[in-house]
Amino acid sequence: MDKIILDGSSFTREQLVAVARHGAQVALDEAQLGRVRRAADFLADKVSCGEPTYGVTTGFGSNADKLLGAHRVRDELPGGHPHRPQGTLMEELQHNLITTHAVCVGKPFAPDVVRAMLAIRVNTLMRGHSGIRVETLQALAAMLNAGVVPVVPEKGSVGASGDLAPLSHLAIVLLGGGEAFYRGERLPGGEALKRAGLEPVRLSFKEGLALNNGTAQMLATATLALDDLDYLLGLADLAAAMTLDAFAGRSGALRPEVHALRPHPGQVGTAAHVRALLEGSTLVDIPYHLVPRFKPWSAEAWSTPEDQALSFDIGWDWVPANQRHGREAFYARFLPFKGGKKHQPQDAYCLRCMPQVHGAVRDAWAQACRVIDIELNAVTDNPLVFPDAEGAQFIEDQVISAGHFHGMPLALAMSYVKAAIPVLASISERRLNKLVDPATNDGLPAFLTGNEDGTDSGFMIVQYTAAALVNDLATRAHPASVYSVPTSANAEDHVSMGANEARHVLEMMDDLGHVIALELYTAAQALDFRQEMLNAARRLAARGDWQALASKVANAPREDHPQHAQFVGEVRALVSALAHAGDFHAGSAVRRAHDELRRHIGFMHRDRAMDGDVRTVCELVRERALRPD
After folding, report:
1. Which listed residue (54, 182, 416, 521) is catalytic?
2. Do 468 and 599 have their domain in common?
3. Contact status, residue 254 vs residue 275, Cβ threshold 8 Å
């Protein structure tokens, strides 16, 4: 894989994912390193002139009014200072900033998150407005490329002044402290550097502040979460398409002229995607009268050896002439048989409104992506160094304290996404529920199993699990960004909590994926039943024996009934329609996904242990083995 050149201005989400999740290496743009060097030299010059500068010759936060002296006062205390640090007070200030701020708790972030944090930090420092030295920045990039992954506990950032505590856990390893993973082993930071052939760094003016002041944790977790959501949005479309095929549903709600009248981008894109997934389907928009309903298997159900191998029976109801009043136009178009498909021109909301719901979530994702794309190439530390500012008279004109470390742009964007996640999970669970409920599944068996002896639960409890996951996601969707807890003795009196927000969203991706996986698992079973039932009806009709098919129809009048001849004629018409219908199958993309599922998980003819199936389908989703294209 080619190295990704970091220049502070052109880093993309795709490149960050390549570094974080696929091991891509980074290189530093040589021309831009000149700007980095210029800012560091400028800062060193100002310090040598004795000008007071925040975070360089002053303390931090509420200690900003404390100016560093020429020597250590503590050395004059009785007994001196037993652990006198090396270097100047300004070097001690930067060192202490990192070591005292690395106080996060919880389990360590996954390596992809930490690698993303490192790459983001390197890229923002490449802008040349942070005062970091070239050699320190090169050391940070070398640590990333060498595979040294600092141990960064998940919790401890309030999202302003940036992600101080987690970024300190990154930087402390650069100093030879803390802990890091190297080649899968958790080690002291200094040992990890040594094994990677790297040397610790001693920080200079403002370098500690440059390393730990910024939005890298929330940006890393947000970017990786959006990468996951991008895949899951496409997969949710695929699950919906498979479910629509399994229902032999209606496609009118997907038509482009419909969505041109309300052209929200996500909605338009979702409808187009699902139409493409369903291309080639002979199930969608099937005439109502062709679709039989499920009937439990019985020994007398079928007469041929081929059909006797089936685990189900099929049937229709005939609609007598005296029950067709007011529906003459309908029965002029469709034969008077009620099977598995309700005589209505629209599907339930979970199918018909899927473009609107999936599309709204897609729009939330797109808005967050817009924010992320800006943040990936933004300078987010403080103060900002402008060595080439024109007309500058005072240090404050060139070293400016501002608030780019505040994570609210990211926090609110992720709050939007956070609220959207249970929405996508909920509509998926509703489709799953519709598939297993005999009152709503349009003629499929209850819980998608034959249950001839009353001993089988089928897919009943799969829906329970999906329901539990949806509830869990919903309870976690409350925005963290609305709760600011002041810090640093009220010097930092409004914070974003964006780190919590983005971390929550990343964590929620697993359960969202599980819900969609359960829908796919269930839809595959339903699709098999629907196709087998229709094709069994077609085979029966292809033999040309109208009486065999008539035996599957309830409400048939007796031979001496006045409507018997009409019934026979209409049964013969049904036989002809089925015999000439051709093979019944799902859309091409749906079939590919169904085939991939069936390579790993077989059709469930009777109850069996399902825990292995569930693990497998969730793993297929986690590994992105099912392609929504």
Report:
1. 54
2. yes
3. yes
Using DSSP, state whether 349 is helix, strand or coil.
Answer: helix
The token duo for 259 is 């969505």
d(CA 76, CA 60): 24
Task: Encode pLDDT of 159-172 as tens digits.
Answer: 988 899 999 999 99
Domain range holding 137? 4-70+87-214
- Are 120 and 216 contacting, i.e. CB atoms less than 8 angstroms apart? yes
Higher-pLDDT residue of 22 and 309 is: 22
Q: Which two tokens stand for residue 186?
A: 């958790």
**Domain-terminating residue out of 214, 248, 283:** 214
From 297, 294, 372, select the one nearest 606 (Cα to Cα).
297
Which SS3 state, helix, strand or coil, does residue 368 take? Answer: helix
Structure tokens at 248: 């032999």
Which amino acid, 407?
G
| Residue carrying structure tokens 């009943």 | 460
Q: What is the pLDDT of residue 18?
A: 98
The reply to whether 618 and 528 lie within a common domain is: yes
Neighbours of 393 (CB within 10 A): 8
How distant, in Å, are the alpha carbons of 432, 569, 618 from that of 323?
33, 17, 48
pLDDT at 558 over 90: yes
- Residue 283 belongs to domain with CATH number: 1.20.200.10
594: Cβ–Cβ under 8 A, 6 or more apart, which residues?
Answer: 242, 524, 527, 586
Question: Are 468 and 455 spatial neighbours (Cβ–Cβ below 8 Å)?
Answer: no
**pLDDT tens per residue, range 565-619:** 999 999 999 999 999 998 999 999 999 999 999 999 999 999 999 999 999 999 9
What is the per-residue pLDDT across 233-260, written as a single tens digit (0 to 9) for each? 999 999 999 999 999 999 999 999 999 9
Q: Contact 120/4 with Cβ under 8 angstroms? A: no
Cα gap 211→143, rounded to integer Å: 14
172 lies in the same domain as 272: no
Number of structural domains in the chain: 2
For 49-92, how does the pLDDT look when each residue is reduced to its tens digit (9 = 90+)? 766 776 677 766 666 666 665 555 555 556 555 555 567 777 88
Under a CB-based contact definition with an 8 Å cutoff, are residues 354 and 428 in contact? no
Average model confidence (pLDDT) across the chain: 93
**Same domain, residue pair 247 and 117:** no
Q: Tell me how far CA of residue 350 lies from CA of 57, 243, 355, in angstroms.
A: 61, 10, 10
**Listed residue (269, 264, 265, 258) closest to 234, CA to CA:** 269
- Are 232 and 326 part of one and the same domain? yes
What does the pLDDT look like over 350-385, one tens digit per residue? 999 999 999 999 999 999 999 999 999 999 998 899
Q: Is the pTM of this model over 0.85?
A: yes
Instruction: Output the domain CATH number for residue 122.
Output: 1.10.275.10
Domain for residue 258, yes or no? yes
Cα(346)–Cα(251) distance, integer angstroms: 9
Does residue 182 have an active-site annotation?
A: no
